Amino acid sequence: MITKQKLVYCRPTLCSGCRICANACAVAHDGVANPRLGRIAIHQNLLERYEFQELCRHCEDAPCIDACMVGCIEEDEGTGIITNDDRCVGCWMCVMVCPYGGMRRDLAKQVAIKCDQCKDLSGPVCVDVCPNGALVYKEREDARVEPFFAGPTVA
Amino acid sequence: MENSRPLCINAVVNLSDRTVELVETQEEAIRNFLGGRGLNVYYLYKYLKPQSDPLSPDNVLILGTGLLTGTIAPNSGRHSITCKSPESGILGDSNIGGFFGPEMRFAGFDRLIILGKADAPVYLYLEDGKIEIRDASPYWGLTCNQTERKIRYDLGSDIEVECIGPAGEKMVRFACTRSGIKNAAGRCGTGAVWGSKNLKAVVARGTRGLPVKDPQGMIEKYIELRDYLQQSRVISVLGRVGTPLLYDVSNYLGAIRTHNSQQTVFFDTLNAEEVHKYVNKMLSCYGCVVHCRHRNTLGGEGPEYTAEVLLGANIGVADTRQIIDLNNIVNDLGLDVSSTGTYIAWAIELFERGYLDEKTAGRVLRFGDYEMARELIYDIAYRRGLGDMLAEGSRLVDRFGPETADFLIAIKGLPQSDPHDVRYLKAFALGIATSSRGADHLRSRPTLEILDLPASFTEQIYGEPVDPNPTSYRSKARVVTFSETIFAVVDCLGICKFICHGFNSPRNLNYDHFRELIKLATGLEFSKEELVEGGQRVIDQERLINYQEKGITRQDDTLPARYFDEPMPSARAKGSRIDRQSFSQMLDEYYALHGWDKEGMLPPERVAELNRLKDLI
């Protein structure tokens, strides 16, 4: 039962496009620097004048879980955090089905990478490092809550 | 992916015979020259044939990332472009931010050393350890923004581009190299060298990670330094309005270069709050905690303080919108803002004094004429009419006569970049007079000693008491040497000067922070003394190149005659000028601090050391 799930939210107007979040993510998870290997992606186009963030939203009924042919993407029952593991074969089906661009590709290792909300650390590192407060980590507003009536109400 | 990779891989690209060779930098060279600007001048000294023509295939073009570029160190997005300057004929070295430097490292190259000349327009494509030399004919002739847009359309948007515009292609001697909308390696005419080699662009796509020695420690250090830096008031104001914040202060002082430095105060329309009416958003370079770059409402980025004064006050244009427009055009065409503004103002004064007539100029030149300036900028970039003449830059002194150099605000053939009239601040004057690439404030920019800090505090920074009076000549050599050295180290590391100790604020990152960051990122251990020594070695190496190429000695470390002879006309700085004798004393002190002789020459032991290092593989 999902209750009180927390998510990382992006505020595009505050993002100045420095890629520190993505870079810190790669450093924290893989020990190497490269924003491309971060689980969060900053899409910036200076010519078209926008900054946009793509990040896993840890959906209910996540399409990536259904799409994964080796079954390496799983949802944690308690926290709602969706993770993948090293059984990934790099078929990119999850990348294709994700409507939010939350699945990233590590082209050197040929595996999909995705946000795990830094569950092994004290909190998401991207939120910790953002210099502009453009990322926030808070309870999702549309979280499922316990139904008020536990049983049938019609006598 | 293996987590190991040599610390510094250089690709030697020969465009003449289209070959690429990989060379690893030995650790001894890294310990002596660090990286970035340092290793760039090291390799320039190694590969450049003495006395070669800067626009010939013999010139060497080096794009080099710093030791910390691309790591998660704060503001680690910068790299240096080095060559022999076609504008000044001495060292050409320019630092550029944006996103290209880190991307080049992720693609597996820390430095590109480009030799020879391609027989047709080409661009370099870098991806994961491979370099391809590709045909650039579809992009030749396009402006910087058009080039970037078209390359992104053709190759995908996840690349980073560094390119030249029409000015570089036409080998305008002060053309810049551009990345993004505004990031530029502006000074010294690096773009013209690209053009002379038929090199339109370098494109990088890097999917590999750059190993970080201590990932967890690095993230913790970054957070600590970010919090420390963001407490600084200067940094928070820079993040809010960018560099135009300096305009108001300098204008109040009466030290804005106006009408080719004939005047020193200008309108309030260039104040930060006026400029900010045209700003949509403030942007960052790679890994930046400051975000000082404006996205303006007229379709470009900027203006910086330099652009608004040199394309505004210096040529007499006061309308904020018109200045931003000129700034956008100059950036798009790939010209250096500082040089362009200085030469246009100089041309106007030449016209006023009768060196140029209406027939040669093709128009009447006068201060404050926006339309004229706009046309002239296009003419320079495309080398038409008077623009073709002005595109030769400071070499025009030979044509108009040596007396015209007295009112060209340039030193060693390079126009002054800073909009600040240095007659008031004596340390500034010494800094631009001795800078290794010509009149440039980003080589030293000494401002700490005048900030009203406690004497014990400044003594701790400089090692000796310094005189806080901005108009005094005493102890300024020490101040300049300090700033010069730390800036050399910062350029070697690939970090932005805005977060560097001594730029505007006594806080910010100092040698101890650099040591910790280098250790966490690369595992190399440096002592503070080694870093200082490294910075000084870089400055000495640059001095040696300048001596070798153009015989630069004491007589070249001087100021435009206007700064000596004409007192400043207005406001608080009224009456200030540089006294020749006191200036000469400052130079003596400065040379002594560097261990150079009275003529500003390196000691023979140092030359021998640099020649020994040059012969390392």
Characterization of this structure:
- The complex is a heterodimer of chains A (155) and B (617).
- Chain A is α+β, with helices and mostly antiparallel strands.
- Chain A has one domain (6-139): Alpha-Beta Plaits.
- Chain A is 17% helix and 22% strand.
- Chain A is globular.
- The mean pLDDT of chain A is 89.
- With 617 residues, chain B is an alpha+beta fold.
- In chain B, helix 2 (36-47) crosses helix 20 (476-493) and helix 20 (476-493) crosses helix 24.
- Chain B is globular.
- The mean pLDDT of chain B is 94.
- Classes of the chains: A alpha+beta (155), B alpha+beta (617).
- Chain A binds chain B through residues 13, 16-20, 23-24, 26-28, 30-34, 36-37, 43, 45-47, 49, 106-109, 125, 128-129, 131-132, and chain B through 1, 3, 70-72, 99, 102, 106, 128, 145, 148-149, 152, 157-158, 180-181, 206-212, 215-216, 218-219, 222-223, 226, 230, 280-289, 291, 295, 301.
Strand elements of chain A, count:
9
CATH architecture of the largest domain in chain B: 4-Layer Sandwich
- The share of residues in extended strands of chain B comes to 5-15%
Please bin the fraction of helical residues of chain A.
Answer: 10-25%
Largest sheet of chain A: 2 strands, antiparallel
Arithmetic mean of pLDDT of chain B: 94
Mean pLDDT of chain A: 89
Taken from the alpha-carbon principal axes, the silhouette of chain A is globular
Radius of gyration of chain B: 22 Å
Please report the first level of CATH classification, the CATH class of the largest domain in chain B: Alpha Beta
Shape of chain B: globular
What is the CATH topology descriptor of chain A? Answer: Alpha-Beta Plaits
- Which sequence of strands runs across the widest sheet of chain A? 1-9
How far the N terminus sits from the C terminus of chain A, by CA atoms, comes to: 27 Å
- Number of helices, where a helix is a run of at least 4 consecutive DSSP H or I residues of chain A: 4
Number of strands of chain B: 17
Name the chain pair with the biggest interface and residue counts per chain: A-B, 32 and 45 residues
Q: Record the strand order, biggest sheet of chain B.
A: 2-1-6-3-4-5
